[in-house]
Amino acid sequence: MINNNDFYTVTLAKVYEDQGHWEKAVEIYRYLLEQEPDRKDFAEALAETKRKMDEAIKKTPDDLIPLFREWIDLLLRYSRLQKLRRFKSQL
Question: What is the number of structural domains in the chain?
Fold first, then answer.
């Protein structure tokens, strides 16, 4: 029978990490470290992933305000562009 842990690899952990699934990446690194406790690269990857996870959690809603402002500005510009295109096509 195949166990879910059979597919735990460094590559899979990196994929989860890149996608922002920090908990799953930490779980995989912990499993790999249990299997090979002497691997310093696993311990370093685990520590780095935990650090990134902590940084991601620390972000507050205030960090999103500039993004929302930019998004709204782009929406307004796009709307004006569409209006200009419609106007131009009517000429």
Answer: 2
Question: Is residue 29 located within the same domain as residue 73?
Answer: no
pLDDT digit string (tens) for 5-46?
Answer: 778 999 999 999 999 898 999 999 999 999 999 999 999 999
Q: Whose CA is closest to 82, among 71, 46, 58, 74?
A: 74
Residue with tokens 């310093």: 40
The strand ranges marked E within 1-91 are: none
CA pair distance 41, 33, nearest whole angstrom: 9
8/44 same-domain check: yes
| pTM across the whole model | 0.60
